[in-house]
Amino acid sequence: MKKFDYYTILEKITPLIAVIFALLVGAIVIKLIGEDPIFVYKTLFSNAIGNRDGWGNVLFRATPLIFTGLTVAFAFRCGLFNIGGEGQMYIGSFLATWVGFTFANLPALLLIPLCILSAATGGALWAAVPGILKAKTGVHEVIVTIMMNWIASSLTFFLVLKFKAPPTAAMITAGVKQMIPHTNEIAEAARLPRLYTIFKFLNIDFPSYNQINISFFIAIGAAILAYYILWKTNLGYEIRAVGYSPLAAEYGGISVGKNIILAMMISGAFAGLVATNEVMGFKYRWRQELFTGLGFNGIAVALLGKNHPFGVVLSAILFGILNYGGAIVNIYTAGRIPRELIMVLQAVIVIFVVISDEVVKRIIRQRRKTA
Question: Which helix (H) or strand (E) holds 196?
Answer without folding.
Answer: helix 195-201
